[in-house]
Write a sequence for this structure.
């Protein structure tokens, strides 16, 4: 794979001011030289500086005027020679330049192949490669922060430190196995257990961030529900800042779920507007209410909207059916006056979708509930593991528990070493320090072509 020279369009297809094409591999300069015309041969151009170039076809006709940058391996993103062409951002001209690069001997890059080469050439570990995709898809400031922390190698450093501690433990055990005549103790006492417990504590601390990671990467699923005509769709539009849902005084206007992403105090929310809950309705409306029930069951947060101008006992349809820790009551239509039956201090947040009264208080309440439900304050844990990391660290935790129990029971050193090696294997899987072809395929298949 690394013997090929690959090329791809690295910017989104479509009309723009510029588009960027990249070539990397052992023949990157030779391929580019067949397409570009510069004052000097590419090999003589100063690396990491922009140079004017004409892009020409095989007959010498100019296709575009571009800027060229050369990155000399290993001081490049992929660790190989890289050539970047910054041409005009028309769809046709960009595609034509790519065709010329492919005709000059490059192969079309697979999704994520540039970053995969960076990993294979030791420029980053798997967790950093995953962070590249997290950064591309980040939909909130906290998600950007977490992706950058991971891109800087924070999870990899944690895993490496734990590996070093476990290697120390394993070295003592295997020394006892290999040289029993030396009577080397495998630290079966407090020192050995303390080192294992320290690693277990670090693993549990990382596992506790899994829920943070899910929310940062996919958004907290936030369902807006309530009876018809209480202002659910109006509230959705206010939170989004644009008219996404149809607002009508006619009951049953919203018959299906409407889903949008937004950011609240740095947190990504997957906001879902649902059909109004009421008795009766036609078949389509009843089907919509069934969907509402399913959305409520799988929501991270349920915002129940009621008409604050009505008496308290006329609202509340979901509060008794869900966990109170993920329920938020909103008294809408505060601009028309809240009924006296809602005078209790804990009777929900008063808002107005018309005057936008109380909207900032609602945003703050959403932030607090999402942060609280995720286990701890996200701002204290900028690093958040993903589902693959979680699976690996759970294996580490299980193997460490088995290692500890074997030590306490004073099992044969061979069995203790076997469990410790399982933990090391799982830690290696986190950062890709072992043969993990299936993991590589899974990680890089989600990348866009050209990255």
């Amino acid at each position: 794979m690394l013997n090929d020279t690959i090329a791809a369009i690295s910017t989104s297809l479509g009309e723009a001011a510029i588009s960027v094409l990249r070539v990397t591999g052992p023949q990157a300069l030779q391929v580019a030289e067949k397409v570009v015309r510069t004052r000097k041969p590419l090999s003589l151009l100063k690396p990491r500086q922009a140079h004017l170039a004409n892009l020409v076809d095989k007959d010498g006709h100019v296709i575009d005027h571009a800027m060229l940058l050369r990155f000399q391996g290993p001081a490049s993103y992929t660790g190989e020679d890289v050539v970047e062409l910054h041409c005009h951002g028309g769809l046709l001209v960009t595609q034509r330049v790519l065709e010329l690069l492919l005709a000059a001997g490059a192969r079309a890059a697979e999704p994520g192949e540039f970053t995969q080469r960076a990993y294979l050439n030791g420029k980053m570990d798997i967790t950093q490669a995953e962070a590249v995709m997290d950064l591309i898809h980040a939909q909130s400031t906290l998600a950007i922060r977490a992706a950058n922390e991971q891109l800087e190698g924070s999870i990899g450093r944690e895993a490496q430190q734990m590996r070093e501690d476990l290697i120390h433990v394993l070295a003592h055990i295997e020394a006892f196995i290999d040289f029993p005549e030396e009577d080397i103790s495998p630290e079966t006492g407090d020192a050995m257990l303390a080192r294992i417990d320290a690693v277990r504590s670090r693993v549990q601390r990382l596992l506790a961030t899994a829920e943070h990671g899910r929310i940062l990467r996919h958004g907290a699923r936030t369902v807006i529900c309530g009876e018809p005509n209480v202002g659910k769709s109006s509230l959705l539009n206010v939170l989004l800042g644009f008219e996404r849902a149809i607002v009508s005084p006619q009951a049953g206007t919203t018959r299906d779920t409407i889903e949008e992403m937004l950011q609240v105090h740095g947190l990504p929310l997957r906001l879902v507007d649902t059909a109004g809950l009421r008795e009766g309705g036609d078949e389509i409306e009843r089907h919509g209410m069934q969907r509402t029930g399913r959305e409520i069951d799988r929501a991270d947060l349920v915002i129940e909207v009621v008409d604050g101008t009505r008496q308290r006992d006329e609202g509340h349809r979901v509060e008794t059916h869900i966990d109170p820790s993920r329920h938020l009551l909103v008294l809408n239509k505060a601009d028309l006056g809240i009924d006296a039956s809602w005078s209790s201090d804990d009777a929900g947040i008063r808002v107005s979708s018309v005057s936008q009264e109380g909207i900032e208080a609602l945003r703050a309440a959403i932030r607090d509930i999402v942060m609280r439900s995720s286990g701890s304050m996200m701002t204290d844990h900028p690093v958040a593991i993903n589902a693959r990391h979680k699976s690996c660290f759970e294996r580490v935790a299980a193997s460490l528990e088995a290692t500890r129990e074997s030590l306490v029971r004073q099992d044969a050193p061979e069995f203790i070493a076997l469990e410790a090696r399982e933990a090391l294997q799982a830690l290696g899987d986190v950062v890709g320090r072992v043969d993990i072809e299936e993991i590589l395929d899974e990680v890089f298949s989600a990348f866009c072509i050209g990255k």
User: Anything to note?
Assistant: Residues 131-209+385-444 form a domain with the Four Helix Bundle (Hemerythrin (Met), subunit A) fold (CATH 1.20.120.430). The radius of gyration is 29 Å. The longest strand covers residues 62-71. The mean pLDDT is 83.
